[in-house]
């Protein structure tokens, strides 16, 4: 299993950024492979969720869990079917707004690992790039102005570029 981390600063207050990310209905705005996220019940420790979407031309659905810790501005998640998959996200104060730190633990499926090896030279490099693109996508979604204008000049292509990570971040069984 690989562990991957990344950090990005966002020009919005930490409470606003965390509220946006903790609202699972916003997930399709920064993970384009996701088409739908829905609650599946509540346990003492976490909320069960179902995630649906499309990645690499394949529809997927996976059941997992998300634990939001608003007082710490932290979220943790995992899969009920993929024991080697999990992650966390934390939002802290930073100069000019917030910092988001993303941690992901997973072992890509063999076909995904082969593709990353082919496209990026090795799996770790491909995963690091995917984490960076996903953080860029989160930044774009959080800083987007009310009229659909970009808040910082980020490219809308950032949303498209997060697809490789988006499928794994959303419990896609294909990774």
TrEMBL record:
Pfam families (UniProt xref): Polyketide_cyc2
Residue numbers spanned by region Disordered: 139-175
Entries under InterPro entries matching the protein: Polyketide_cyclase/dehydratase (IPR019587), START-like_dom_sf (IPR023393)
Ranges annotated as biased composition (Polar residues): 165-175
Name under which the protein is recorded: SRPBCC family protein
Lineage, broadest ranks: Bacteria, Pseudomonadati, Pseudomonadota, Alphaproteobacteria, Acetobacterales
């Amino acid at each position: 299993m690989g562990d991957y981390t990344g950090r990005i600063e966002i020009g919005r207050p930490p409470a606003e950024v965390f509220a946006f990310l903790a609202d699972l209905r916003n997930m399709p705005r920064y993970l384009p492979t996701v088409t739908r996220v829905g609650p599946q019940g509540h346990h003492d420790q976490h909320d069960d969720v179902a995630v649906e979407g499309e990645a690499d031309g394949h529809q997927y659905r996976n059941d997992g869990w998300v634990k939001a810790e608003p007082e710490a501005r932290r979220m943790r998640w995992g899969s009920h079917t993929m024991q080697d998959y999990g992650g966390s996200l934390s939002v802290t104060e930073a100069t000019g707004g917030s910092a988001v730190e993303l941690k992901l633990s997973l072992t890509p499926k063999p076909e995904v690992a082969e593709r990353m090896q082919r496209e990026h030279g090795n799996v770790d490099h491909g995963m690091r790039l995917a984490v960076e693109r996903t953080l860029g996508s989160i930044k774009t979604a959080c800083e987007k102005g009310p009229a659909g204008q970009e808040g910082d000049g980020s490219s809308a292509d950032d949303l498209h570029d997060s697809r490789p990570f988006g499928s794994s971040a959303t419990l896609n069984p294909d990774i």
